[in-house]
Recover the amino acids of this structure.
């Protein structure tokens, strides 16, 4: 049983960590780019960059009309992810960056963990135990400390960041449950539609000339630090559940603070250090929060990233790659093992 837990969780945990590092670096760089643009235009170009960066892989799959494969449930989840996670969320956080330091905004992003946890409990059957809720409370305390540290501007900025985190909380659960298309395809569509809409709005309200260098830098930033980061996060969330993946992704603000020091010469205050420690405690508590009980799996056919060492993917095919993605079928079965709320374990708890 221990072998099962380690083998099935290690890879998505690593992927979530890489995703966090990439996104953490994007915050201070975005702060620099905001001096030459407005939040709408920058958000649009970042997501267009993400879509452009993934286009070659989408073309190689030879499935340019893969959106037609989605059923109504997955189509609604994708639409929610695009609107809340791709359009509204990025705009709110980039506006918030104008009112506060990049390092504090990076740490405030941990409110996304709280939003994901609460929304998961209320709407998405994403289980959270006693240790998990203590971790959420500690993370909330950490965010309050940061707000005090920033003063009046911190209240404005933190309000915007909290609103963005609620949007991304919904987005996290929507993307974790999309199983009709691959993580790459989901991110490509999200980047394409969110990028086009925000870019059009940004250009229409811009009162300054937009340089070619700014466009190029924004697209490159979006391609590397948004596109790849989002794909890795979705893969992780489908395996660990949105809340657990968000626990690991909570390390992104720490990377943001470090990169803010290196790129923007921003200093770290004592309150930020205290907040940092509290967040580490919160992440540790939530990481060890899991459970085991008898549960039933209904027959289903879907697509997602998986391998054949997790008790749920024992189908046969000629693909010798350990971790891969394709359409596959699950039979109905009842069993018990330690688990987290991944794609196969979204059920009610008593």
């Amino acid at each position: 049983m221990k072998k099962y837990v380690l083998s099935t969780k290690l890879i998505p945990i690593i992927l979530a960590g890489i995703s966090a590092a990439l996104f953490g670096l994007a915050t201070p760089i975005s702060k620099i780019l905001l001096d030459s643009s407005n939040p709408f235009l920058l958000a649009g170009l970042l997501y267009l960059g993400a879509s452009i960066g993934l286009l070659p892989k989408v073309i190689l799959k030879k499935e340019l009309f893969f959106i037609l494969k989605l059923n109504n449930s997955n189509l609604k989840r994708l639409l929610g992810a695009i609107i809340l996670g791709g359009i509204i969320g990025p705009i709110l956080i980039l506006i918030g960056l104008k009112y506060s330091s990049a390092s504090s905004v990076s740490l405030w992003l941990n409110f996304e963990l709280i939003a994901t946890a609460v929304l998961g409990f209320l709407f998405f059957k994403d289980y959270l135990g006693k240790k998990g809720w203590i971790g959420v409370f500690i993370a909330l305390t950490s965010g309050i400390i940061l707000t005090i540290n920033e003063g009046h501007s911190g209240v404005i900025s933190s309000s915007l960041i909290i609103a963005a985190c609620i949007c991304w909380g919904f987005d996290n659960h929507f993307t974790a449950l999309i199983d009709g298309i691959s993580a790459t395809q989901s991110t490509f569509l999200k980047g394409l539609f969110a990028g086009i809409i925000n870019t059009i709005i940004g250009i229409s309200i811009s009162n300054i000339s937009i340089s070619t260098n700014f466009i190029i830098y924004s697209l490159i930033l979006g391609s590397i630090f948004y596109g790849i980061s989002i794909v890795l996060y979705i893969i992780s969330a489908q395996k660990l559940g949105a809340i657990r993946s968000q626990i690991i992704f909570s390390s992104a603000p720490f990377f943001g603070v470090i990169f803010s020091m290196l790129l923007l010469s921003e200093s770290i205050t004592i309150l930020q250090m205290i907040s940092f420690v509290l967040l580490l405690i919160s992440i540790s508590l939530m990481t060890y929060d899991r459970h085991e009980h008898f549960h039933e799996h209904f027959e289903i056919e879907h697509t997602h990233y998986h391998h054949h060492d997790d008790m749920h993917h024992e189908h046969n095919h000629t693909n010798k790659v350990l971790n891969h993605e394709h359409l596959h079928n699950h039979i109905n079965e009842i069993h018990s093992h330690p688990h987290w709320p991944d794609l196969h374990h979204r059920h009610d708890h008593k």
Summary: The first strand starts at residue 291 and ends at 297. Confidence is low (pLDDT under 50) at residues 1-7.
